[in-house]
Amino acid sequence: MAHKGRRKALQEPVEPAARPVQMDEDEGPERHVQTDALDEAGAEPASRAASESSLSRLLGTLGLFSTDSPSLTVEEIAARLGVPKSTAYRYIQELSKVGLLVRLDRSITLGPRIIELDRCIRESDPVIRAAAPPMRELAEQTGLDVFLSKLYGHSIITVHTEFNDPLPHLRYGRGRPVPVSRGASAKALVAFLPAARLRRLHQELASESPDTLPWEAFYEEAQRIRREGYCRTSGELNVGKTGVSAPIFGRGRLVVASVTALGSDARLALFDAEAIAELVQRTAHMISVRLSADGHL
Asked: Which residues does the UniProt record annotate as the domain IclR-ED (predicted)?
């Protein structure tokens, strides 16, 4: 199956605000201090909610940047966030202080701190640490490219790759969001979500896109993938490419990622379908065991 010379496959409820207390003439100022403190405590939830909303918008500024929008002006940031230009200036200033943004003349771009955080993820993420050696072994055994993907909101993000092709021509690769309803890496992960979360995800997808499969078809596809233990797709994300993916589990059999072997349709045709699926599943199992031994997930 693999090239000659390659190793053989191993396979809180909030308390109501205190009512103001009338201070008698013989009471000292301490009673007033206590009452004021209680009044502030009663108002705290609303203040905290407003603060969290502001923080979400500030951090949401980073999400405005993409390969299609690598740089933005203050006006564009303000418009996309729906905030006054003065607020956008403040967000940019705060994020620039910690290196997450950089201002170049009138344009704002992502800052060098992003690169540092990316390196930190590559070196310290427990899933990547557990997955890298088995992924490398699978790539060497098969000559295929191998991807590690994780769920992020309504997208799947490839967080680590082991390439055999030095110049892979992929529409979707590391760091590029993949729709949860397309491609083997997404489907193999989503299918193993707990039933309640799977239903909620479908409802959210359906509210965003009229092209979402009806629940019955969506659920049946997930059940089929669960029965088979893996997912195989061709051309759904990259034309002329076939992917075979299996889920990776953490503690309590909770799915945390998926591992995918990807190659050209012609290359995958050289493999026995069941044999390559077994190899990918075995790699996913090895990663799951390593994760359990690591003790982080």
From this structure: 113-293
Distance CA 131, CA 57 (A): 34
- Percent helix, strand and coil across the chain, each to the nearest 5: 50, 20, 30
Residue type, 175: G
Q: Give me the amino acid identity at 256.
A: V
- Does residue 17 lie in a domain region? no
- Residue 188, pLDDT > 90, answer yes
Q: Do the domain assignments include residue 21?
A: no
Residue 130, class by beta-carbon neighbours within 10 Å (0-12 exposed, 13-18 middle, 19+ buried)?
buried
Please tell me whether residues 98 and 238 are part of one structural domain. no
99: region left, alpha or beta (phi > 0 left; psi from -120 to 50 alpha): left
Query: In this structure, are 145 and 283 located in the same domain?
Result: yes
The confidence score (pLDDT) of residue 51 equals 52
Q: Residue 22 falls within a domain, yes or no?
A: no
CB atoms within 10 A of CB 68: 5
Q: How confident is the model at residue 1 (pLDDT cuts 50, 70, 90)?
A: very low
Does residue 211 lie within any of the structural domains?
A: yes
CATH number at residue 85: 1.10.10.10
Residue 98 is part of which domain span?
Answer: 29-114
Residues 193 and 150 in one domain: yes
pLDDT, residue 44, reads 54
The model's pLDDT over 155-179, given as tens digits with 9 standing for 90+, comes to: 888 999 998 665 555 555 677 778 8
121, 128 in Cβ contact below 8 A?
yes
Name the region of 229 (left: φ>0; alpha: ψ -120 to 50; beta: rest). Answer: left
